[in-house]
Amino acid sequence: MSRLAGRVALVTGGGRNIGLEICRRLAADGAAVAVNGPDVDELAEAVAGLPGPALAVPADVADAAAVDAMVAAVVDRFGRLDVLVNNAAATMLGRGPLLELDPADWDRSFAVNARGLFLCTVAAARVMVAGAAVVNISSIGATRAHRNAVAYDATKGAVEAATRAIALELAPRGIRVNAIAPGAIANDRFAALDDTAKAARAAPVPLGRVGTGADVAAVVSFLASTDADYITGQVLTVDGGLSVQARPPGTDPVLDTSGPEGQQT
Q1: Which pLDDT value is given to residue 265?
Q2: For residue 258, what are the domain limits?
Q3: Which of 77, 113, 128, 184 is 20 to 30 A away from residue 142, measured at CA?
């Protein structure tokens, strides 16, 4: 039997990139999948490409009324909701130097990335039963700063703090809440780069490659399944080892082995 057979999942920001790969993996593992996003045509294409029961649910996740209607539509179609994946994010909004950051971009980043997670989780938790799971998509930017991405990194810090706090709140209801922190993951912007630029992105990663949406989706499927029944409030990093390094490749000190103890220089 497939890992998620009989389960119903809602994936926000599921029309492209990591979100679409998550939808594909959950569907392949047996779940009925509701795909959220702002672009109706993109959602229609995504749903048409899934192997099992699927539903397009366009909505702005920062709009409380729209989120409530979205969750109601999922329950009306499938009769239940077992898995929520909070993937929607304004990833490129407000990118640039701190002193040039528009407060409106800061506010919108938090509206989508943090408020959206809050609204969707509350709406979902109201209809979920024991055994359900919430998986939030964070970023290594929550704990390792990106340059020129203050708003984005701040929202992902909020995602991880919220994950821990919400996990405590929902544990008595039997609902698990975890997060995934991806590192360098290929997307449509990565695909547009030339080979030199792609190689430069992969160079700092210890496993020697940029990750894929499928790499992240596999972990989502695990956390959504009964295989993870005793895991809640955790953040799993999916970055090929990128964030465990003290220094970038090529900058480690030379080990002097001439003495009896050895000495780093």
Answers
A1: 45
A2: 8-264
A3: 128
